[in-house]
Design brief:
11 strands, DUF1631 domain-containing protein, five-stranded antiparallel sheet, alpha+beta
Length: 732
């Protein structure tokens, strides 16, 4: 990557990391962070390998397939070196951390904009966009822990201060270390972007636990233990600090609104650059200043949008979910209202380039939303009605694209997440969740006047509603799980008891009284012993009683065996009686039954051949069955093996959709994986069981196209990823 990116400031300081000892309280953090990042990075590389393998399998030509396999080979060969380089660089940051302000200024100095776009290589721009988006997202998501760490590290390191802070764990430092490490890989930009995406997913997105641990270690060491952070104003202070430093920090924050705005608008700025490049490639550069054109923006544009339809064209404003998702060509609609606008000076109204890009971006976001299969159809229809309100939101506040905590963004994500379990067959009229989503959309359409606090209050109201509903469904789901675990364990217990007894009893022609006791009486005790084995550990003892009984019924002529028989029988009879009494086996005839058993044992002691070995041993049959099942569970088909791997990647809490043979479909959530029975239990939104499948059955359903795993990431995040990916491909 070209060093124009501000991310690579740290690369120029590679030689400045000395071997000097780090402060005592930092050494433990360094070791923990380096080890933790190493573990996370391994997961990222494993995911990259899987992604490249899947791309190779789906390649449209031999050349494309060879490209992905070559990239896989290159990464596998150099992977350990990259991991080692990354960890060593991170360790050097702790020895000599760069000052955050210095990095920030360098980044601003090298920022790529529309004016110098032509100076940046295609690959460099794509990589820079990905890196900047990654860093911006991490800073927003981990804002609190990062600010605390920066204050504490600046307190620990000599030469650091509030005016010149340091934080060796800052996202920009870690991303720089990774981009520096992967320079050794001879791969093309698409594979490099896959690497960055998985680094973001597995490493950067999981920084929270390492940041929290670092803060905890510093707090234990007495470094600013009473830290207070007020996220809305950006002010923070420590109880141990003096008032002057607090006022100075407050003054600094108030004097830097532009920096905060730049951070909040970073994602849109990157997309704006891609759109500018797309216009440049297509020869559609912005026209020079035309005296006959009057630029419209701000409140005037916002008021013009009031004439756009609000998404209630269903024929029934009381039921917004009727019909198909609403599609609005925002670009054409805005052009139409501009054409109808009369200006007092006679000039032709036009939009600023930035506003045009905002309209295009919202339009592209909703194009993704309307094509997103993971979004349930009824909720998709409702969210499609919000295109105009969301356009008004972003025209006033571009941080919608960068801040995951933006009220409108949080609400949209919450609506989509809550409605993922909806199926077309669900009864909407009587469902509280659907009614709530419907009422929220209706309230936005009727009441939104530009004040984003409406989204904030609605989101809080919706979260409280979800918490109540989730408590109910969680209790039902927990009972369902426990019931299924109990049922499956009982089923397994019965199958095991039947198999053990069948294997032993079928080897011999036992006397009728003995056979009756084992099959109709002792089997019940064995069943309970297996279920309670976790606590009482009596399963093996119950099996030993069966083996001892059969052994005692065999004729024994050797003196040592007869002596052993005399020692075993009293305890055997005592165990049998106690066990049969415990399961209430034919209590009125228990004495007679035990009397018959004693008679059979006595006959056996006299060496009477009253039991015989059967000619065919069922063990061989069972062995054949087990080997047959083993072959069945290990499909030779590579495609089937791939589907099995996809099944293994499904986690408890993931949603899937099943399609039935008759064309109907239903959505359900994986509630439990019961390993001992190879059973996957799925429940609906209310926590009730709807289906259970084995691992091989799920793989077969997936292979036939009758089961689809649903994407569960935040809706707007996925939409932004898709939009950026589309723009990259168009500007490549």
């Amino acid at each position: 990557m070209n060093k124009q990116s501000g991310i690579h400031y740290l690369r120029d300081h590679k030689g400045t990391a000395s071997n000097e000892a780090v402060p005592t309280e930092v050494a433990r953090i360094r070791d923990t962070v380096v080890a933790g990042l190493g573990d996370l990075l391994q997961g990222a590389f494993d995911a990259v390998d899987d992604s490249l393998f899947e791309l190779a399998n789906n390649a449209r030509s031999n050349n494309e397939q060879n490209r992905y396999f070559e990239a896989m080979r290159e990464i596998r060969i150099k992977r350990k070196g990259v991991e080692r380089h990354f960890q060593n660089t991170v360790a050097r940051f702790f020895a000599n951390p760069p000052h955050t302000d210095q990095l920030h200024e360098d980044s601003l100095g090298q920022q790529v904009n529309a004016d110098n776009l032509a100076l940046v290589g295609n690959d460099d721009l794509e990589e820079q966009v990905a890196l900047n988006a990654m860093i911006t997202k991490a800073k927003a998501h981990f804002q609190g822990p990062l600010i605390q760490l920066q204050a504490r590290f600046s307190h620990v390191y000599e030469g650091a201060s509030d005016q010149s802070p340091v934080n060796p764990m800052a996202p920009e430092h870690l991303c720089s270390a990774f981009t520096e490490a992967i320079q050794a890989l001879e791969i093309q930009i698409r594979e490099r972007l896959i690497l960055l995406k998985q680094f973001d997913r597995y490493v950067v997105s999981n920084l929270g636990m390492l940041l929290d641990e670092a803060n905890r270690i510093l707090v234990q060491a007495g470094v600013i233990p009473n830290f207070r952070f007020h996220g809305k104003t950006g002010q923070q202070h420590s109880a141990s600090g003096n008032r002057e430093s607090q006022e100075h920090a407050s003054e600094q924050n108030q004097n830097r609104p532009d920096g905060d705005a730049a951070s909040n608008n970073a994602v849109f700025d990157q997309i704006h650059q891609l759109l500018a490049r797309q216009r440049a490639n297509s020869g559609m550069s912005p026209p020079s200043h035309d005296p006959d054109i009057r630029i419209i923006g701000g409140s005037e544009l916002f008021s013009l949008l009031a004439s756009l339809p609000l998404g209630t064209q269903t024929g029934n404003e009381h039921n917004l979910s009727e019909g198909e998702p609403l599609t609005i060509d925002l670009r054409s609609a805005v052009k139409q209202i501009l054409a109808q606008t009369n200006t007092s000076d006679g000039k032709k109204p036009a939009l600023k380039e930035v506003d045009e890009d905002l309209i295009n971006l919202v339009s592209m976001l909703f194009e993704f939303i309307l094509d997103d299969y993971s979004l349930s159809a009824p909720v998709q229809v409702l969210i499609s009605r919000l295109q105009i309100p969301i356009l008004k939101v972003v025209l006033k506040d571009k941080s919608f694209f960068s801040k995951t905590t933006h009220p409108a963004r949080k609400l949209l994500n919450a609506l989509a997440r809550a409605g993922i379990g909806w199926s077309n067959s669900d009864e909407k009229a009587r469902d509280k969740l659907y009614e709530k989503i419907h009422s929220i959309v209706q309230k936005i359409l009727c009441e939104f006047d530009g004040d984003v606090t409406l989204f904030e209050s609605l989101n809080q109201e919706f979260e409280e509603f979800l918490a109540r509903e989730n408590r109910k469904s969680s209790l039902v789901e927990q009972r369902t799980r426990e019931s299924e675990r109990g049922r499956i364990k009982s089923q397994k217990a019965q199958e095991l008891v039947d198999r053990v007894l069948k294997e032993r009893v079928a080897r011999y022609r036992l006397p009728e009284p003995v056979h009756n006791i084992l099959i109709n009486g002792w089997s019940r005790f064995m069943f309970l012993a297996y279920l309670r084995d976790d606590v009482e550990h009596r399963w093996q003892e119950s099996v030993k009683v069966v083996d001892d009984l059969i052994w005692c019924l065999l004729p024994h002529e050797d003196d040592s065996e007869r002596d052993q028989w005399v020692r075993v029988v009293p305890g055997l009879l005592k165990s049998l009686r106690a066990g049969l009494e415990e399961v209430s086996y034919n209590a009125t005839k228990l004495d007679d039954t035990m009397g018959l058993l004693k008679h059979e044992l006595a006959e056996a002691f006299r060496a009477s051949p009253n039991i015989e070995i059967a000619e065919e041993l069922p063990v061989q049959e069972d062995s054949f069955t087990e080997s047959h099942n083993a072959a069945y569970l290990q499909p030779e088909d590579s495609a089937m093996a791939e589907h099995m791997a996809q099944v293994d990647s499904i986690e408890v809490g993931n949603w899937v959709e099943f399609r039935l043979v008759n064309g109907a479909n239903f959505r359900c959530k994986l509630s439990a994986i019961i390993d001992e029975a190879d059973c996957f239990v799925f429940v609906n939104r209310m926590g009730l069981k709807v289906i259970e499948k084995t691992r091989i059955e799920l793989a077969q359903e997936m292979r036939r196209g009758r089961m689809t795993r649903l994407e569960q990431g935040a809706l707007i995040d996925r939409a932004l990823d898709a939009v950026v990916g589309s723009l990259r491909s168009k500007t490549a």
